[in-house]
Amino acid sequence: MFCYQCEQTDRSGAVPGCQTAVGICGKDDTTAGLQDLLLYMLQGVGQYATRARALGITDTAVDDFIMYAAFTTLTNVNFAASRFVPLIAQAAAYRDQLKSAYEQAAGAGAWQPTGPATFVPATTLAELTVQARAHGILDEAVSDDVVGLRALNLYGFKGVCAYAHHAYVLGESSEDVFAALEEHLDFLASNPTSLDDLLARALALGDLNLEVMRLLDAANTGRFGSPEPTQVRISTVAGPAILVSGHDLADLEAVLKATEGTGVNVYTHGELLPANSYPGLKKYPHLIGNYGGAWQDQQAEFAAFPGAILMTSNCIIQPRPEYRARIFTSGPVGWPGVRHLHGDFSQLVQAAKALPACADEPEKTITIGFGRSAVLSVAGDVVNAVKSGALTHFFLIGGCDGAEPGRNYYTDFADGVPDSTAVLTLGCAKYRFNTHEFGDIGGIPRLLDIGQCNDTYSAIQIALALADAFGCGVNDLPLTLVISWFEQKATAVLLTLLALGIKNILIGPRLPAYLTPAVIDVLVETFGLTPIGEANADIAKALAA
């Protein structure tokens, strides 16, 4: 296998990347190869979908499949090789369906297919595994810079698809987004070699992701209301329980409905913590609060949790024997031998009833729910605090957390900023410091938890609104972005920030392995993208700017 799509990738060799039978994330070479082959097949779907759309032929089922299938290939999502065999077959079926419709409409002038549009996948796992060896990310015919920028485009695309899928399952979609996703697949299928074109396409993905995240924001708030400041319990209460992890608010809602009147309590974990601030979800009295922290701590936390566990959307790691029999997956998530649920959570509820109950612990709480509606409702107070000098700077410290060394930087940074500054946070990076005491500035909390990484749109709108209030650009605000990245959703968000022209972002703990020195030089020169250094030095530099 060869994989370097996430931050934890092996960098011990001359060429960075996981190249052994099993990657650091736990993905084996068979699954890695099938994921590469599925992405290659999706490019063929995109080739025909783009040309069919130009003739007025569209198919929402195809676009739904593109988003879902790409989502399954993200880091820590689906490790079950057997699940990819039918996905590859479905990709071929959709491609051939589009091909037939397109050729009938185009007639004699039909486009002559090349590349993935003509590829015929095998039908067995063993044969597909052999085929997959020819369709990985590496390409010896082009430079490392080209390969790296192709990877940036592919991984950014995967992140955009994940966010678009989240919005789609909540009823928000756009034909313009579908068309852009198809076009990007068609672009990748052409084996692009121009560095300028590849960088321009990556930034276009950033623009697209902003629209996708607007749709996701509309989906979340339209279904569940706007997040509001909420004290969330982070200790357990007595009773049988289900722990829901991942990102998927729709699945969480379904679990809450399935457990109404059963006596089973529900807790969130990881990136689902912000769900506790949505009126449409916290109205359920048996949504008790949040248990545990970020995704990388799940093995110890899931082992300690006595009830049933549901992993939604992404961030699963190898289940330990202590809880393997009581963890379930849903949506794009998969692990070999773990029971997968398809919208019916009755098995999950039955398991929770049969398992030991949680203990009644002393109550502990944290405050969350500072989405844009909450923050902008006190925008006048914030502006006045800045103008008076009481509030001197904003730090947005957010992104993905992870287990690799170096992430204590974000704890040190948050704890080290002056008391006259405010910290905004989103994503699971918040778990590095969200139980620390930050106090307030004139009644405005110094720590403002905006929500999931899925809520990046809300953070961007806060920044734009503040810039408007001060009559300046975002880059002129007393604002520093300190971002931790891990996987492909984070890649999509970074591309959005760059596409918006936001500069001087601090990023870490390490830059993506697929970005070559030459590409990094371009990003540094154009956008001021800066690797993190030592926390106190970076704080001092930001405040002196």
**Which whole number gives the mean pLDDT?**
96
What's the helix count?
A: 18
- Name the overall outline: globular
What proportion of the residues form beta strands (DSSP E)? Answer: 5-15%
CATH top level of the largest domain is: Mainly Alpha
Question: How many separate domains make up the residues?
Answer: 3
> CATH topology of the largest domain, which one?
Substrate Binding Domain Of Dnak, Chain:A, Domain 2
Write the layout of secondary structure elements.
Blueprint: H1 29-54, H2 60-71, H3 81-106, H4 125-132, H5 144-169, H6 175-189, H7 195-224, E1 230-233, E2 241-245, H8 249-258, E3 265-268, H9 279-282, E4 287-290, H10 298-304, E5 308-311, E6 327-330, E7 339-341, H11 346-354, E8 365-368, H12 372-376, H13 379-388, E9 393-399, H14 408-416, E10 421-426, E11 440-441, E12 444-445, E13 447-451, H15 456-470, E14 479-484, H16 488-499, E15 506-508, H17 517-527, E16 530-531, H18 535-544
Parallel strand pairs: 2-3, 2-5, 3-4, 5-6, 6-7, 9-10, 9-14, 10-13, 14-15, 15-16
Antiparallel strand pairs: 1-8, 11-12
Helix pairs in contact: 1-2, 1-3, 1-4, 1-6, 2-5, 5-6, 5-7, 5-16, 7-16, 14-18
